[in-house]
Amino acid sequence: MIAVKSRVDAWLGHFTMYRLILWVLSVLVVYSMVLDVLGWLTFGLPEMLVHLVLCLGLTYASGRLAAMLFRVRPHSESSLITGLLLYFLFWPTELTPAVQLTHLAGVALACVVASFSKFVLAFRGRHIFNPAAAGAFVAGLTGLNIATWWAATPAMLWLLAPGVLLVLYRTLKMLMAGTFLVGAVSIVGTILLRSGMAAGPALWQPISQQPLLFFVGFMLTEPLTLPPRRWQQVALAVVVGVFFAVPFSLGGVANSPELALLIGNLLAFLVGQRGGIMLTFKGSRPLTPFTTEFRFEPHRPVRFLPGQFMELNLPHSRSDGKGRRRVFSMTSAPGAPELTFGVGTAEPHSAAKRALLALEPGECVRGTAVGGDFVLPPDAGKPLLLIAAGIGITPFLSQLASLDPERRDIVVLYLAPSAAELAGSDVLAASGARVIARLSDGSPPPSFMHDAGRSRIDGDSLRELVPDIAVRDVYVSGSPANVDALRAAAHRAGARRIHVDAFAGY
Questions:
Q1: Sheet bearing 497-502, strands edge to edge
Q2: Looking at residue 200, what DSSP letter applies?
Q3: Helix/strand/coil for 7
Q4: Rounded to an integer, what distance in angstroms lies between the CA atom of residue 443 and that of residue 359?
Q5: Torsions phi, psi of 501, nearest 5?
C-alpha cells in the first residue's frame, strides 16, 4: 500500500496544483461535450463551443489587459482556470432561433469582472475573493444572467467525482472538503426530510443535483483565498457550508453558492496574511552541493510560524509546463531581518527554479501565500523527534533557529547521502538538540552529531536510536516516498503522534 501511494505521489508531483486543476477541468469540458453528443445533456454542441470560446477568450484577454493596466506580468494559467470555471457556472447561451444577447452579455461581464477582481478587489497585491465567484455574483446582481452551476448534473458525476478526489488529494484538502460536504449534505438533507422526502433521495439529491462536489473541489479550496492553518480551513468549511445550505436573504440578495463563497473569502482574508508579500532579493549561498539558500528582504513584516511555507511567483518566459508559482519552506526565524529559503537545486532545474537561480540582487519577487500546519506544539515541555530526509531539513531549520535550546528536549535524525550534503549544520549545532546523522555513503558526520552508520532506518533501528520515541511528538519531512517509509518506521517503533510534511512540488 505504501509503495502504491508513493508511486501516485511521485506521479502527481510532476504537476503543480494549478496545472493539475487546469488538466482536470479541461478533461471535464471534453466529457461534457461527449455527454451532449450522446444526449445526456441538452445544450447543443454549437452552443457549448461558443460558450467555451467566450469564457476562455474573454478571461484570457481581460486578464492580460488588467495585468498591463496594473503593470504586472499576466498569469495565463490562472486566467484559463477562471474561464473554465465560468464555463461550468453559466448555462451555454441558446443560439437559435435567436441569440440571447443579454445572457451572452451576462457571461461576458462575469469573465471581465473575474479577471479585474484579482487586481481591483485586492489588498496590497493579494486578491480577496475567488475571481469566478466574484464574476458570477456581479453578473447575477445585474440580472443579465444567473449562475446555474450546471456541472451539478448526475451524468457529470461519473468523471467529476474522481477528478475532484484527485485535486483534493493533491492539495491535501480532504479534511476541509469532508467537513464541508458532511455539514452541507446534513443541512440540505434535513430540510428535504422535513419536506417529506425519503431518506435515500434526501441524501442523494444534494450530491447529484447541487454543486457540492464542484464547489468544494475547485473553488472553496482555492489556496490563495484560504486561511493559513488547517484548523482555520476546517472552521471556514463549516461556516461556508452553513451559508451554502441554509436559505437566507441579505438586503434582498438570496443565498447562492457564489455568495456563500465570497462570505467565506472575506473571513479567510481577515485571519490570513492580508496583502501580497513583496521581497527584494539579497543574494544566495550554497548550503550543500545540491541545496542553495536564497535570501530576501521583505518590504513589510511577514507573519508566519516556524515550519510554514511561502508560495513564490517566479515569472519566466519559457515555461516547462510546471507553472511559475512554487512553494518553498522558510528557513529563517520569524522576525529575522531577512527571509531565507532552502531550495534543492540539483539538476535538472525546472523553469521556475532557473528563474530563481537567475535572480540578481535588488530584483523583486512576490510571495502569494503563506501557510502550512507543520509547526511545533506550543508546549515547551513536550519532547520532540524531528526526522529529516535530505531537503526535508529546511522547515526544521526555521524551527530550531526560533527555539530556546535550554527549554526543549529535541532529537534530530538527519538522513543524507553524505556529510557534504548536510545542510544547516551551523543551525543544528547552535540549537542544542541531540543530532543523529545517518549517511548513506558511510562518511563521518560533524563531531557534534551522533553517527547512526549506514543501517536502514526501520522500526527496530529507530527504537534503538531513540528509546523514548513513544513519549515524543514525531515530525517527519522529506520527499513523499521518504515520508511514507519513515512514518511507517516511526509507527512500528512505538510513536503515537506523528506529523508529516511531504515535498512534492506545488
A1: 449-451, 434-439, 410-416, 384-389, 473-478, 497-502
A2: H
A3: helix
A4: 34
A5: -145, 105
d(CA 265, CA 136): 15
CA distance 240 to 34: 33
For residue 332, count other CB atoms closer than 10 A to its CB: 23
Q: What is the pLDDT of residue 301?
A: 86
Query: How many whole angstroms separate alpha carbon 376 and alpha carbon 202?
Result: 43
What nine digits make up the cell of 314?
Answer: 517566479
- Neighbouring C-beta atoms of residue 400, cutoff 10 Å: 27
Contact 386/396 with Cβ under 8 angstroms?
Answer: yes
**Per-residue model confidence as pLDDT tens digits over 464-486:** 999 999 999 999 999 888 888 99
Contact criterion met (CB below 8 Å) for 224 and 81: no
> What ranges make up the beta strands (E) of 360-409?
364-371, 384-389
pTM for the full predicted model: 0.80
352, three cell numbers: 521556475
What is the C-alpha R_g of the chain?
25
Which of helix, strand or coil describes residue 493? helix
Give CA separation, 430 vs 87, 290, 342, 406, 474, in Å. 55, 23, 18, 11, 21
